[in-house]
Amino acid sequence: MLTIGDTVRALRNERNYSQEQLSKKIGVTRATVGAYESGGRFPSLSSLIALARVFGVTTDYLLGVSDKRTHYLDVSGLTPRQIDSLHLIIENYRECSAAADKDGEA
Description:
The protein is mostly helical. Helix content is 66%, strand content 0%. The protein contains six helices and no strands.
């Protein structure tokens, strides 16, 4: 079973982020990210949530509780049109977030 540090390192490397880049995205120092990855420190609740958001995985995945990476949205009881609307909202949010991230890195 992977530790949270192993998981953070693997996800960071998948996205080709340096420790410095990840640290800026989650609001901690580079040394703190290094400590997470080496097992010297465990992320605070707010950092855990930030990591999950940056990597697009669940906190359960980061903690090793689940092997499912992504969030699942319960759409039971919604009409197909409502579900389609949610998909459009999510895609729009992703595009806006990507544009904001790109603008912030320039």
